[in-house]
Design goal:
alpha+beta; 2 strands
């Protein structure tokens, strides 16, 4: 299992962080590239649409899982 790495991002003007294993992070980077957007923009989009009771790291993992289940077609 890949160790969890903490990363920082600025979302709507404030710094926050999330923790992901490398495979999840790598898939987020690939999704952002497939959608022709920056990783920060993708993370901000996921953050904006996540339920308020879900933490950002969990929301990112679930987004990657959903993307993989739908055949990595890059849609959200």
């Amino acid at each position: 299992m890949s160790p969890v790495e903490k990363r920082s991002v600025t979302i709507r003007g404030h710094r926050t962080s999330y923790s992901l294993e490398k495979p999840f992070y790598d898939d987020l980077v690939a999704i952002a590239a497939a959608r022709k957007m920056t990783l920060a923009a993708l993370v901000a989009e996921i953050d904006e649409t996540r339920p308020r009771d879900a933490n950002l790291s969990s929301a990112l993992r679930l987004f990657v899982l959903d993307w993989a289940k739908r055949g990595k077609n890059g849609s959200s």
